[in-house]
Amino acid sequence: MAALGRPLWLLAAVAAACQPFAVTQAPPAVGATRFVVVLDAAHGGDDLGARLGNQAEKDYTLALSVKLRSLLMARGIAVVTTRESGADVDPERRAEIANRANAAACLNLHAALASANSGPAVHLFLSALSPTPDARPGAGIRLVPWRTAQSAWIRRSLALAGVLNTALTQAGITVTLGRTALTAIDSMACPALAVEIAPQRQADAQDAVSADHTAFETKVADALAAALVEWRSEGGPRRP
Amino acid sequence: MIPRHQTALFGILLLASVIMGAVLWNQMRRAHERLLRGQDSAPTQAPQVAAAEQATLMVANDADDSVGPRLLTLPLPENPEARARAVLGKLLDLYAAPDSTHPLPGGASSIAQVFLVPIADAGGKASATSPELAVVNFTNAFAAGHPSGLETESQTIRSICATLNANLPRVTQVRFLVDGQTRATLAGHADLTRTYLAADAAPRP
């Protein structure tokens, strides 16, 4: 039985080694590393995303990413973006960028016209993965399955959603919170959220953005920047 | 000058062609009449009227990003797959209505089929009481016409999973196809490559 068990054990070890993993570090002490925010403008290349009037979602999110990066850098926050042009970036690559940056927060930016029966809003989405026990501080480097790396960070992502919700609500913006399955976020080993900006639909044209959408975007970008400053000041962005 | 025997041969062949044409035309006409006689336009089976039952539709509302129950009385077939298709068809009819809280095009015809597959236990066995995987097959027209957006697509998936779970409690997992094929996303956002847990989609208290 033992002779049979050894080859099986070896086979299982080889199979496990072939699985993709994300290397994640145990949460460092507060302030031990710089505070980095990853801005992930969704879509790109042939993947246009939703239509917002005459603009594709991929262009809208890129413009928002650039605007938000300026606001954050002006507040002394280091920013890493997953794309700087209209080219597409693979979801795995997006997660890889966030994980390599050891991000304190990652915002996966989306945009779509608000539904006909609702006003302008921001939709915050957590990963739909079930939370797993958090990493313990000081536990050293550990391996987590690549496709479910976010599961250990769900609680921190929920805390980040709370900070964003507070800042957006204080700015007078309607916020909804949900859960969704997104490959890029599921593989991120950091507090991560999908943020969908939903500007008002023009009343007389079903697929056009209302005239005051620029003011709404600016308000959202300002609120998100304020929230990330608050997230930094909480002192434990990477502590589970 | 054409030889006499060639003229005779040509005449014989011409006559044979005409006779063969006439025979074929006659046989075709007879076959057509035979088919018409065999075709019985009367229904072979009386249409079954399913008994009206109460169904719980988990209806999405884009205004507050919620999914809530709505009780309706519907004629529901006995067959579980037909029943699943009927409730989802009614749900999508509600979404296609002008006063919809989650506007979607298509209506009931957007669901091509719903298959229910028993989920085997750890021992690889499935029984009549095993939990089931529902495979919902959308039409391509529905996926092509679905509004693109993280919230709207997530709401559609969530309400379908919750509706299946509310009316067919054995359905614990849901997968989606479009025209019988696996597709990456519904309309650019919601992931259709994964299996959704139906219970997760139920509204939180």
Strand order of the largest sheet of chain A: 5-2-6-10-7-9
Integer average pLDDT of chain A: 83
Number of domains of chain A: 1
User: Which term fits the overall shape of chain A?
Assistant: globular
**Residues in helix, % of chain B:** 25-40%
- Let me know the average pLDDT of chain B: 89
| Spatial sequence of strands, sheet with the most strands of chain B | 3-4-5-6
Secondary structural class of chain A = alpha/beta
Q: SSE string of chain A, helix = H, strand = E?
A: HEEEEHEHEEEHEHEH
Poorly predicted runs of chain A: 1-5, 8-12, 14-18, 25-31
> What's the β-strand tally of chain A?
10
At the fourth level of CATH, the homologous superfamily of chain A is Zn-dependent exopeptidases
N-end to C-end Cα span of chain B: 105 Å
Structural class of chain B: alpha+beta
CATH class group of chain A? Alpha Beta
As residue ranges, the low-confidence spans of chain B are: none
Largest sheet of chain A at a glance? Answer: 6 strands, mixed
Shape of chain B: elongated
Characterize this entry briefly:
The complex is a heterodimer of chains A (240) and B (205). Chain A has helices spanning 2-18, 57-74, 91-100, 154-170, 183-186, 213-233; strands spanning 21-25, 36-41, 51-52, 55-56, 78-81, 105-111, 121-127, 141-145, 174-180, 192-198. By secondary structure, chain A is of the alpha/beta class.
